[in-house]
Amino acid sequence: MEIKKDILWRVYLCFLVIAVIGAFVIGKAFYIQQVQGAYWRSMSDSMHTRIEEVDAERGTIYSEDGQMLSTSIPQFDVYVDFKADGLVLNNGKVFKDNVDSLSICLAGLFKDRSASEYESLLNKGYKKGDRYFFLKKKVSFDQYQQMKQFPLVRLGKNKSGFIAEVQNIRLNPYQLLAFRTIGLERQNAQKVGLEQTYDTLLKGTAGKRLVRYISGGVAVPVNEAYDIDPKNGKDIITTLDSRIQEITENALMKMMISNEAEHGCAIVMEVKTGKIKAIANLGRQPNGAYWEDFNYAMTPTEPGSTFKLATLISILEDKKFNLSSIVNLEGGVWQINGRTVYDSEKHGQTNVPVKRAFELSSNVGMAKLTYASYANNPSQFVNHLKALHLDSTTGIDLYGERPPFIDHPGSKYWSATTLPWMAFGYNVLVTPLHTCMLYNAVANNGIMMKPYLLDEVKQNGNIISEKQPSTIEKICDSATLAQVRECLIGVCRDPGSTAYKLFQTTAYPVAGKTGTALVADGKNGYGAGIYQSSFAGFFPADNPQYTCVVVIKNKPHAVLFYGASVAGPVFKEIADRLVTLNAPLPDSVRYASMKANDSAGYSYAGFNSDIKSILSTIHITYKDSAKTQLAKMNKQSNQPTLTSIAINKNAMPALNGLGLKDALFLCENAGLVVKVNGVGKVINQSIIAGSPIAKGQLINLKLKTD
Known about the structure:
Layout: H1 2-35, H2 37-47, E1 49-54, E2 61-62, E3 68-80, H3 85-88, H4 93-110, H5 115-128, E4 133-140, H6 141-147, H7 157-160, E5 162-171, H8 179-182, H9 193-197, H10 199-203, E6 207-214, E7 218-221, E8 235-238, H11 242-259, E9 263-270, E10 276-284, E11 290-291, H12 308-317, E12 326-328, E13 333-336, E14 339-342, E15 351-353, H13 354-359, H14 363-374, H15 378-387, E16 405-406, H16 418-423, E17 428-429, H17 432-443, E18 447-449, E19 454-459, E20 462-466, E21 471-474, H18 478-493, H19 500-503, E22 511-518, E23 531-539, E24 546-553, H20 567-579, E25 603-607, H21 608-617, E26 623-625, E27 630-636, E28 639-644, H22 660-669, E29 673-677, E30 681-685, E31 698-704
Parallel strand pairs: 2-8, 26-28, 29-31
Antiparallel strand pairs: 1-6, 2-3, 3-4, 3-5, 6-7, 8-19, 9-10, 9-24, 10-11, 12-15, 13-14, 16-17, 18-21, 19-20, 22-23, 23-24, 25-27, 27-28, 30-31
């Protein structure tokens, strides 16, 4: 019994000791937190400091014509140090005298809280004595400039306690325009395009600052005297021309929408230099819209008939045949080594000259010529393709270019039919950029130029480096060059050729080649009925200025799929616009007085209510036939008459005659990015009225006064 009492006494004693110790620990924790909390927090503030990097301002990317393609804009996170000298002086008199007026200003600027709510928020932070009180995030530059003039804030950082943390965000002002080529710099994400390629130039050199870490992991700047300012990044000027890019993007977009294509690209290269003036890449999104989602221009595919230019150069350069040599097209069907070669378009031709076989884009003709020339030595043909640099990357200054594929004898892929199929662009993989580089060499008197996108590097407005055009080599002799140019011109000029109907009314000469290729589609292979339409060429053919390549992958079993029907019209629209780009624009609308008996015509356009208000104010009688929000007024039966202007959200409205306010209203509601040249009323719009439009497209408006 005594043993039991002894054990219980010891247990009770241990329990009592533990309870006392526990109570002491809890009491001490409460005392430290509630009584000494401010002291220990201040100790933490003063002891936890470190040097951290400050990002430099990223350089801007410009087009060659001076348009800003990608730039950084500042945003500000605003905090308040309620222990700042000016706020604690005289028992906080400065704060108390200004808090109400400051709250009114903040409420008026941000419109997210009432003035009383802002005043309550600020008073709460002041009472707590918060050293880094969060007030507002993502304040724009304009808002911050206004805020700096507000009561209390205008006294400066030391007196007001207001601290602004700058965060730079990257912006593409033209959105869709060359978006994939320009790229986008994003935090914690992979950069693409020029933003990635020239990241070391654009990002500059980071600075240093001394910060103190407080509760919650918030870093507070300690003393600006310890700061090392960052060195801002350099600006780069690209070879892209915003006008040419816009023309190219719009022409491609229109065809993509109308044909419901899967994806496509269009490239415009300056003949003499190799500068890329435009590069558009559009892919169909799950919602049916199109966006610059991938760089299709640098992705290898089976090119189809545009590759026949390389085949023709090889045959003519080796003197195997000449343009007058006769080849039997077999009516468009030829059996070779157990397989059949078909011409994509029925022509019913048999014995024709080589030039005519090329103009008809005969697969049979080019396959037979290649097989007859190189069956005993296929490496000779492959070596020609390598000499044309079709087996290696183009070397363009843009990350992401994928290598082409040119098969060679002895490889596991080589078979008895590889050679003839290579002749018309199958069993090879090249990028649209390769095709562009080859056709540009023909346009440039046989001299192949290396394509490039960087023109200049600037810092603080001064040029610090310039990139010069780079010559690769001459692709063939002058005699061969003259013959292939004659063939390319014949494709667009001679009756019956694949592009004759497309260019028969064109006022300037064009040289080019159509292409139609049945392409594989994953597990479905070639059975999905998907065709790739392409057109490659240069213009004007007698004095080439630009080379252009258009490649569009159509949807399965598309009604239109031939190169001349899908890619050709895109090429033609680009060429037409570029040839006339600098031509003077005629006045499309003339205006006269509003006198009813005036024999001259007149035309005005604007919002229906605005026109009626003006006519009523100046007491002019008019006939009202307008039933829409937008109206046009002209003279009919010697009387001012209002007629409707239809508006379709998916199509470009006619803007001629509209003032800038009305034109901007329509364009911006449609999601277009507007660039304006001139003053007055709209006399020309870069997107043709009625054309399909997509959000983010750029439209140029030319204005002129009466």
